[in-house]
Structure formats: structure tokens, C-alpha cells
Amino acid sequence: MNWLDQIKWDRDGLVPVIAQERDSGEVLMFAWMNREALARTAELGQAVYWSRSRARLWHKGEESGHIQQVHEMRLDCDNDVILLKITQLGHVPGIACHTGRHSCFFQRLEQGEWHSVEPVLKDPQSIYKTP
Q1: Which residue of 37, 40, 73, 110 has the fewest C-beta atoms within 10 A of its own C-beta?
Q2: Residue 20, SS3 per DSSP
Q3: Are 34 and 50 in contact (CB under 8 A)?
Q4: Which residue segment(s) compose the domain that 101 sits in?
Q5: pLDDT of 27-65, one tens digit each?
Q6: What is the pLDDT of residues 101-123, one digit of tens each?
Q7: From start to end of 24-106, where are the E strands?
């Protein structure tokens, strides 16, 4: 049996993926992969996701240069979630979020309100092309 056939894909042919920093254990982001994205990730050793908004493969860092080097891929006990243990690379090392922060999980609930608790490492307008 092909290793990709062991994954429980959702009805859209996707599986949720968590990107975790290998050295610190910090969760940097959540995204989706289809079969092709997961196969390409295994082949390249770099994260390739499925962009639901663009309806196409998205090689993490293709615009920003903030590539995710994949060290390990793990499948959860239900075979329906992938965990990537990664090193976040780039011009400004450690930026995983499109907001220019280290992690996409930068908002913390405090007294009933969401507060940004991580600094912007680089202005996102200087990272991405504007249409």
C-alpha cells in the first residue's frame, strides 16, 4: 500500500497540517495539503501546501523566501492530521506568518479580548508583492 493511501483525506481531498519548529517545539502555523502537496513535500524536503484561497499548490516561501525545511513528517493516531517538524528559513530567519511574525498564533485571549503578543519581525508589505 502506498503511504499516501493510509491518510484519511477529507471530502475535498485535503488533510490538515501543523508546522512545528523542530528546535523549540513551537507551533508556527496550520495549513492544508492535498496528495500532490504532501508528495512534493516528501520529495523536496520543503513544505508545499494547498492554498484553498488560490486553489493551487503553494510552496511555502515562494514569494517571501521564508521556506520551511522539513525534518520529519508525522501522522496522528487517526491518520487524519499531519505534523511537520520544520526549520523556518528566510532572509529574516524565523518568519512563518504572512503578518511578518514568527508564528501565526500571535494572538492571546486576555480578559475576554484578543491581544497581539508577538512582534512583527518584518513589515509584510516589504515581503510580499502587492497586486
Answers
A1: 110
A2: strand
A3: yes
A4: 3-120
A5: 999 999 999 999 999 999 999 999 999 999 999 988 888
A6: 999 999 999 999 999 999 999 88
A7: 27-33, 48-51, 56-59, 68-75, 82-88
Count of helix runs (H) and strand runs (E) in the chain: 2, 8
Q: How many domains does the chain have?
A: 1
130 is a domain residue: no
Partners of 109 in the β-ladder = 114
Q: What's the CATH number where 62 sits?
A: 3.10.20.810
Work out the angle at residue 95's Cα, subtended by the Cα atoms of residues 90 and 101, and round it to the nearest 5 degrees. 155
Secondary structure class of 111 (helix, strand, coil):
coil
Cell match 493551487: residue? 56
Tell me the pTM: 0.87
